[in-house]
Amino acid sequence: MLRISSLSVYYGAVRALSNISIHIKKGEFVCLIGSNGAGKTSLLNGLMGIVPADAGEVVFDNNDISGLPTKKKVKLGLCLVPEGRRVFPDMDVYENLEMGAYLQSLKTKKRQLEFVFDLFPVLEERSKQLAGMLSGGEQQMLAIGRALMSNPKLLLMDEPSMGLAPIIVKDVYSKLTQLKERGLTIFLVEQNASIALKYADRGYVLENGKIVLQGNTSQLIDDNEIKRAYLGKEYKEKWER
Ligand SMILES: Nc1ncnc2c1ncn2[C@@H]1O[C@H](COP(=O)(O)OP(=O)(O)OP(=O)(O)O)[C@@H](O)[C@H]1O
Ligand SMILES: [Mg+2]
Fold first, then answer.
1. 100, 122, 151: which is the final residue of a domain?
2. For a substitution probing ligand 1, which of 9, 40, 45 has the most ligand atoms within 8 Å of its CB?
3. SS3 at position 112
């Protein structure tokens, strides 16, 4: 469904990502893990065209989408849930959801709203509440709901676990699993390697702007280097007690 070949992102003379190649098949749930500053956000922003990406090719659903404006990519079925959620705090939940459907027909908007309320009943209950008043977990659900309003084929997510209590993180990921079961393809980037590797099918490891490892998440979880670098605390608890 998506193939990124040799993508690089520069900020002025500074190279944030070099030669990134990633593929995602229809129906897969793929994660990319990496620590602070590894380049995770740059990758998603480069992919969406929010920051310029160089020397790469991005093919989505057999279309070469490299260089297309962000709006066109959304129209084709890519949608990003940004880092930090970025809900519109002074608008209510319903208005936030409507913003996600601004490129869609009235019919699609209605259908997607039903879909979102079915998946997240809390958003229907709170539809008249200001988004800024929601809890962090509810805001994350709203950010996902807003992206779903554009009827995406591939959902891109930037650190859905950020700043949330572990039990809420689990809630968010179980919703992502439900979305996968309903046929959505998901690509997310995370610092929280243990949760991402637990829920995703396949994963990539990004270090200093380069992919250093990839494989099925079941293999990555068992990789000693990953245990040491990304699952440190749990690894210590399990093996070095
Ligand atoms: N707008 C920008 N201008 C200049 N440098 C930037 C910009 N955005 C990011 N960078 C640099 O690019 C590198 C990768 O940053 P990026 O935000 O993509 O990392 P990240 O993996 O998302 O980190 P985090 O886990 O903290 O969100 C960092 O060295 C960062 O300082
Ligand atoms: Mg980031």
1. 151
2. 40
3. helix
Is the domain of 59 the same as that of 177? yes
Q: Which tokens sit at 38?
A: 């590894």
Give 4's strand partners. Answer: 22, 58
The conformational region for residue 180 under phi > 0 = left, psi -120 to 50 = alpha, else beta, is alpha
Question: Same structural domain for residues 49 and 163?
Answer: yes
| 69/162 same-domain check | yes
Domain boundary among 126, 151, 176: 151
State in Å: Cα 105 to ligand 2 middle.
Answer: 32
pLDDT tens digits, 166-221: 999 999 999 999 999 999 999 999 999 999 999 999 999 999 999 999 999 999 99
Residue from 7, 8, 11 to probe ligand 1 pocket by mutation (most atoms less than 8 Å from CB): 11
Shared-domain flag, residues 114 and 185: no
- Per-residue model confidence as pLDDT tens digits over 55-94: 688 999 999 998 899 999 999 999 999 998 999 999 999 9
What is the number of structural domains in the chain?
2
Angular region, 77: left φ>0, alpha ψ -120 to 50, beta rest: left
Q: Which residue has the tokens 């997310």?
A: 188
Domain housing 92: 84-151
User: Is 101 in the same domain as 176?
Assistant: no
Tell me which ligand sits closest to the C-alpha of residue 208: 1
Question: Which atom in ligand 1 lies closest to the alpha carbon of residue 38?
Answer: 21
- Tens digits of residue pLDDT in 141-177: 999 999 999 999 999 999 999 999 999 999 999 999 9
CA of 27 from ligand 2 middle (Å) equals: 24
For residue 55, the CA-to-ligand 2 centroid distance in Å is 22
